[in-house]
Structure formats: structure tokens, C-alpha cells
């Protein structure tokens, strides 16, 4: 097969994790996408912003190293680092309803990231099934309050899943989910159970994972991404807090270089429609990926 004749397609997935990312990063990204004529998929955190509680992760191996490497306090801002601890947690969906609705009005796809990002990311593996169900249920109600319809898709915080969360997502009758890392769309099997909701995995590492690894800097990171660009579907996850803020210029340069290469930008819903039908089944497991301190949901790839 002549792979060079197949066009590269990119779905941009935006994880919106925090109050400040929703308020300041999302409008920046809307402006950038408008300039490039790109439609993307935004996943919103809709409940309390407890970012300050992430400080608990300081006791995990690799977390401090990553915080220092990515200069997280300067990138996220001091207030965000205190939400849910010294400062009360703001309620993102309630307080920023109009800003969130604007994303759909601008023609982008919207979905559920979570209710409480830090809680899901840090404790999902220890949740009772009812807790997982409540987190998704609250997010789902807030989504409906904002948009007037139920979400057709979810994307788990930190690519963190359990068989319970996949089961609950199945019961929500979603079109697809994007909870995973891997090579291409698939139907997941986890703990010997097969789930019916299509997964569209992120195929590229995030900027914060690449920065500082193997000497990669802001000056060279886009060369790295262009090397990762393959024919067919590529899925790139960005964060409103980073690419919509401190890493904005580098991200714009990436879009310029991708546009020069005539890649086609699609939403994840477009990708699901185009690539989902004949998707294979793959095993899914929680494992480690370079540059990230916590485990992520990985598509098992035959070697
Ligand atoms: Zn997130």
C-alpha cells in the first residue's frame, strides 16, 4: 500500500480542566481556530475546580519532577493551585455557562470531560460504582442545563478509566468516547469484558509530556510533532490551560506548519463517523507512558 498517497487527518481534542482555563484559555483557542478555519472537539469540566487538591500528588513518584519540568505553577497560575484548599473551589459549569455555550455556537463539538477533575483523576480506581455514576451523572445534568441536549461523548480526566466507568458510559448510549491512548479507533475489552462504546484514542503525546524529555524544548517540539504525523487519523489532545495560554505561540506555529502540509482538520465526531464503523476490538489497560506521572488507559497494540 502506498501510504504517501493517503492524506493526514488531525482531530484536535481540547481538555478543559480548570476554571481559569475555561474563562481565559477557551476564548483564546476559539479565536485561533476561527483564524485557521478549524472545527475541534472541546471537553469540559463542569463541576468544582479543586485543582489545589492535586498537591496530594506530590507524594507520587515523578510528580514533583514533572511539576518542576513543566513549570506548572507559572503555567497554571497561583490561584488555580490553591482552589479547593486555601481558596474555595469555583463551580465551572454554573459560573461560566455562557462562555461554555459560546463554544458550541462557534460550531465546535462539545462533550463531557468530568464533574470534578481532580477527584476523578486521583480516586477513580477506588470509587464505588455509585460514585463513578454520580460524577458522570452530575456532569451530564450540567451539560444538559447548558446546552439543552445530552452529551454524545465523554473523555476521562487524565485518560483514567475503570471497567465501571466504561460500563456506565455504555449505559449513557454515547456515540463514542475518547478516554484512551493508542493508535486508532477501537472497541475496548477491559478485565475480560467487552464494551460497546467506540474509543477514539489520542495518538500523540501532549506538549507537557514531550517538553523536557529527550532534550525537547519549545523551539524543537513542533519538529517532533511533524515527525509523528502519519497518514490517516491523528488525534492530538491539547489543554485550554496550556495551548490557550502560556504555550499559545508554539501551538499556533504548529497549526501553521500543519496547514502548510495540507492536513485535514476534523472533529472527533467526524472521525468516529469516518473510522468507527470497521474498528477492531483491542484490550485496554492502565499503564505508564513517557512524561506522565500517573497511569493512563492504553490500547494494547499487537507487536
Ligand atoms: Zn483533563
List keywords for this structure.
303 residues; alpha/beta; TIM Barrel; 4-stranded mixed beta sheet; 40% helix; 17% strand
Structure description:
- This protein has one domain (3-299): TIM Barrel, CATH 3.20.20.370.
- The longest helix is centred in the middle third of the chain and has 19 residues, at 129-147.
- The relative contact order is 0.20.
- The protein is built from 14 helices and eleven strands.
- It is globular.
- By secondary structure, it is of the alpha/beta class.
- Strands 1, 2, 3, 8 and 9 form a five-stranded parallel beta sheet that branches. Strands 7-6-10-11 form a four-stranded mixed beta sheet, with no helix packed on it. Strands 4-5 form a two-stranded parallel sheet.
- The structure holds zinc ion (ZN).
- Zinc ion binds next to loops.
* Portion of residues within helices: 25-40%
Overall SS class: alpha/beta
From the alpha-carbon coordinates, what is the Rg to the nearest angstrom? 18 Å
- Main beta sheet: strand number and arrangement? 5 strands, parallel
Into how many domains do the coordinates divide? 1
- From the spread of the alpha carbons, the general shape counts as globular
Overall average residue pLDDT: 92
- Strand proportion: 15-25%
Tell me the CATH superfamily: Glycoside hydrolase/deacetylase
**Name of the top-level CATH class:** Alpha Beta
Helix-strand string: EHEHHHHHEHHEHEEEHHEHHEHEE
**Residue runs with pLDDT of under 50 for 5 or more positions:** none
Bound molecules: zinc ion
Could you give the count of β-strands? 11
CATH architecture: Alpha-Beta Barrel
Number of helical regions:
14
Distance between the termini: 19 Å
CATH topology: TIM Barrel
Amino acid at each position: 500500500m502506498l501510504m504517501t498517497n493517503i492524506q493526514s487527518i488531525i482531530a484536535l481534542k481540547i481538555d478543559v480542566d480548570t476554571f481559569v482555563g475555561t474563562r481565559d484559555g477557551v476564548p483564546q483557542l476559539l479565536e485561533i481556530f476561527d483564524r485557521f478555519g478549524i472545527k475541534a472537539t472541546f471537553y469540559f469540566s463542569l463541576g468544582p475546580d479543586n485543582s489545589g487538591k492535586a498537591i496530594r500528588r506530590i507524594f507520587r513518584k515523578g510528580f514533583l519532577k514533572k511539576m518542576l519540568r513543566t513549570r506548572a505553577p507559572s503555567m497554571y497560575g497561583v490561584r488555580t493551585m490553591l482552589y479547593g484548599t486555601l481558596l474555595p473551589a469555583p463551580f465551572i459549569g454554573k459560573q461560566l455557562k455562557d462562555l461554555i455555550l459560546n463554544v458550541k455556537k462557534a460550531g465546535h463539538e462539545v462533550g463531557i470531560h468530568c464533574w470534578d477533575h481532580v477527584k476523578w483523576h486521583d480516586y477513580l480506581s477506588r470509587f464505588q460504582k455509585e460514585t463513578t455514576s454520580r460524577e458522570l451523572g452530575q456532569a451530564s445534568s450540567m451539560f444538559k442545563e447548558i446546552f439543552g441536549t445530552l452529551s454524545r461523548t465523554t473523555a476521562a480526566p487524565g485518560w483514567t478509566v475503570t471497567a465501571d466507568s466504561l460500563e456506565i458510559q455504555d449505559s449513557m448510549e454515547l456515540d463514542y468516547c475518547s478516554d484512551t491512548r493508542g493508535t486508532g479507533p477501537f472497541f475496548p475489552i477491559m478485565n475480560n469484558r467487552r464494551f460497546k462504546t467506540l474509543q477514539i484514542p489520542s495518538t500523540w503525546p501532549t506538549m507537557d509530556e514531550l517538553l523536557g524529555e529527550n532534550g525537547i524544548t519549545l523551539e524543537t517540539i513542533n519538529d517532533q510533532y511533524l515527525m509523528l504525523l502519519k497518514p490517516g487519523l491523528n488525534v492530538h489532545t491539547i489543554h485550554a490551560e496550556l495551548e490557550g495560554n502560556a504555550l499559545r505561540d508554539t501551538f499556533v506555529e504548529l497549526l501553521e506548519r500543519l496547514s502548510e502540509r495540507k492536513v485535514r482538520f476534523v472533529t472527533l465526531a467526524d472521525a468516529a463517523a469516518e473510522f468507527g464503523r470497521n474498528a477492531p476490538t483491542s484490550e485496554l489497560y492502565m499503564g505508564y507512558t513517557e512524561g506522565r506521572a500517573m497511569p493512563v488507559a492504553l490500547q494494547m497494540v499487537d507487536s
